[in-house]
Write a structure and sequence with these properties.
Helix 13 links the parallel strand 10 and strand 11. The longest helix is centred in the last third of the chain and has 25 residues. The strands form five sheets. The chain has an eight-stranded parallel β-sheet with strand order 4-13-12-11-10-7-6-5. It is an alpha/beta fold and 641 residues long. Helix 7 packs across helix 17, helix 12 packs across helix 13 and helix 17 packs across helix 19. It has 24 helices and 17 strands.
Length: 641
């Protein structure tokens, strides 16, 4: 007795056959009743032809096996994120990257809607990693939620160091992260800047330059200078001091920020294709219209830590004494330590450092960079804060932090780890109405925030969204004020790791200060041998005149004795680690093919095989035999075979 045919097998061609039958029946109906049957005839005819195309095409196995019906698979895959987001995902399920609860609180605060919750927490307070703030029995009363700090020193107070700031900025402790015009639409920039103006906080331009949309409402601007030097560049992409000074001295520009690396894609440059370089984008960036706009992966204005410090001093002078700092995501630890050594050697310090975490957002990043490159903000912020304390420089440098900052507890936790203020990008995007569709790179943003399509952009009404930006800022800081009052504090700068508690497992909890202790002032310089391993091992490797690790001298090696095993089981010192990092290796063999990745929709070359195993000659050519390789088959947006 034969086995029954599986259901999936039985319907392979059924839909196509039914469409063909519909054509026949529609034709009969047309012959009998006349023109009334034209509509079903056209519909079933088109579906039948589609089925024939599916059956004969060679790119998608699903469509070859399931003509017409196979398109349902691609449709469901296309709307899968929305189905999950709206119908499947729970309030506290792992969101991508933000949970429904996180998004909801932003929407509520932006709209001024009640954000209270009945019936208690939905979080598992016994889960590993759960954190809370210890409260006080002697609460405080704070007059205003408008917490502010001075960046670049306080007025009337002498500044330490060479070439100090002379125009300090009184900043809010919660500001808008760097997001460029081009990545965001014109209306999004207008709404963000007007919201910043209403709320009295700062708006970072991103590395795309200062556009006319940043200027229109007069909100405070932090001008970010990336490796492309957009808005202050020469024709060859190098830094132009005159153009920089012209814009940096504008009253609306309050601070200047050198972007060294971005958390979501550190060490990765970028290209804005010429087709997307519109006249407005070209004007903001100072590049030709219609020409590819290159953001190199490294700066050309400096090549080592000392040169970076001198560049900071130069920008401070050109800007008329305004605060100048830099943003980075922590990577090689000796590079960061080299920057600190350069501060000590030159006596030039940045007015601030923004620590960007690997969990930060971006319009587009290679998945490996987004998932596995750069230090998370917790580790990066803790290291930067402690290093400046240990080097005796913390009082001269303010620290900002960015990386998934949404709620007042996120702010409080950053302040406890050492931040003086926080930036948020995606939080303010959600205040504009972002629904986390995650199509920022496509130009098809459904809310008009991350697109240059004017028809989509018009959906974002600036007059409606700007107040929401201001309300989200104000209500989040109001919630922070209530947290501080409950903890018995008066300002975010009083928060420390002693206030935050983390659950280690079901039976143990630890203060964050026990897990991530704070170094003693000046300890790196005076007592390196008794510091944490990261300082003992990597401080001797750092060089103020190079980003490369160096072999420590004998005195430095003595200060970092053997403290941990290597892979081979032998103890490793800073000197041995330096030797391993700088060891000469055999040169890599050259590429043998000319295949390059592509992201076009060009048709895939199909071999005209004479036998089932025939391989076309052009598919095997390579540099090994002197022949040029054929272009790589084009990638397709559908990841199925």
């Amino acid at each position: 007795m034969s086995k029954p045919m599986p259901f999936a097998q039985s319907i392979r061609f059924t839909t196509w056959a039914l469409c063909a039958l519909g054509v026949v029946l529609s034709g009969v109906a047309l012959a009998i009743w006349g023109r009334g049957a034209w509509v079903p005839l056209v519909v079933f005819g088109a579906l039948t032809l589609l089925g024939w195309r599916d059956y004969t095409q060679t790119r998608h196995a699903v469509l070859r096996n399931y003509p017409v019906l196979g398109h349902m698979r691609f449709l469901l895959e296309f709307i899968r994120p929305e189905i999950r987001q709206y119908f499947v995902e729970g309030d506290h399920d792992a969101g991508e990257p933000f949970t429904r609860a996180q998004r909801t609180v932003v929407y509520q605060r932006a709209k001024g809607a009640p954000d209270v919750r009945p019936f208690g927490t939905k979080l598992d307070v016994g889960a590993k990693g759960y954190e809370w703030i210890n409260h006080s029995l002697q609460t405080t009363k704070i007059g205003s939620h408008d917490f502010r700090i001075w960046i670049g020193g306080e007025p009337g107070t002498p500044r330490a160091g060479a070439s100090p700031c002379t125009q300090p900025y009184n900043a809010s402790v919660f500001n808008i992260s760097a997001m460029s015009f081009g990545a965001l639409s014109a209306n999004a920039i207008l709404a963000l800047n007007q919201g910043a103006k209403i709320g009295g906080f700062a708006h970072d331009t991103g590395e795309g330059g200062i556009s006319r949309y940043h200027r229109e409402h007069g909100g405070d601007i932090i001008w970010e200078i990336g490796s492309g030097y957009f808005g202050c560049r020469n024709a060859d992409g190098s830094f132009n001091a005159e153009r920089f000074a012209q814009q940096a001295r504008e009253p609306q520009v309050k601070m200047v920020e050198i972007k060294i690396s971005q958390g979501a894609k550190p060490g990765h440059g970028g290209v804005l294709p010429g087709a997307k370089v519109t006249p407005e984008i070209a004007a903001a960036r100072g590049v030709p219209v219609g020409v590819d706009c290159i953001s190199p992966s490294a700066h050309s204005a400096f090549s080592n830590p000392v040169e970076l410090m001198r560049f900071v001093a130069r920008l401070r002078e050109l800007s008329g004494g305004k605060p100048v700092g830099f943003k980075l995501c922590i990577g090689h630890i000796w590079e960061w330590f080299g920057i600190v050594k350069a501060m000590l050697e030159t006596d030039i310090t940045p007015d601030y450092i923004v620590v960007d975490g690997a969990e930060g957002g971006t319009g587009a990043a290679p998945i490996e960079f987004a998932d596995h490159m750069g230090a998370p903000v917790q580790e990066g912020l803790h290291l930067v804060h402690n290093t400046l304390i240990g080097a005796g420089l913390r009082e001269r440098v303010k620290i900002g932090a960015a990386g998934k900052v949404i709620t007042s507890f996120d702010l409080a936790r950053m302040f406890a780890l050492g931040a003086d203020w926080c930036n948020s990008g995606r939080g303010f995007m959600m205040a504009l109405g972002c629904i986390q569709a995650q199509v920022c790179h496509s130009g098809f943003c459904p809310t008009g925030i991350t697109t240059q399509d004017q028809k989509r952009e018009r959906a974002l009404v600036v007059a409606d969204k700007a107040p929401r930006v201001a309300q989200y800022h104000a209500n989040t800081l109001h919630a922070l004020k209530e947290l501080l009052q409950a903890a018995g504090l008066m300002h975010p700068d009083q928060l420390s790791t002693h206030h935050i508690v983390r659950r280690i497992d079901s039976e143990r909890i630890r203060l964050l200060s026990a897990i991530m202790p704070t170094i003693k002032p000046g300890a790196i310089l005076s007592d390196l041998a008794h510091q944490n391993n990261v300082y003992r091992l990597y401080w001797p490797l750092a060089d103020a005149h190079s980003f490369n690790p160096r072999l420590p001298d004998s005195a430095e090696a003595d200060a970092a004795p053997d403290i941990r095993p290597t892979v081979a089981g032998r103890p490793a010192s800073a000197a041995q680690i330096a030797e391993a990092l700088t060891r000469r290796r055999a040169p890599h063999p050259g590429a043998i093919t000319h295949l390059v990745p592509e992201q076009s929709n060009a048709a895939r070359a199909v071999p005209s095989a004479t036998t089932p195993t025939h391989v076309p000659k052009e598919w095997t050519a390579s540099g090994a035999n002197g022949a040029g390789g054929a272009p790589a088959p084009a990638a397709h947006e559908d990841q199925v075979v």
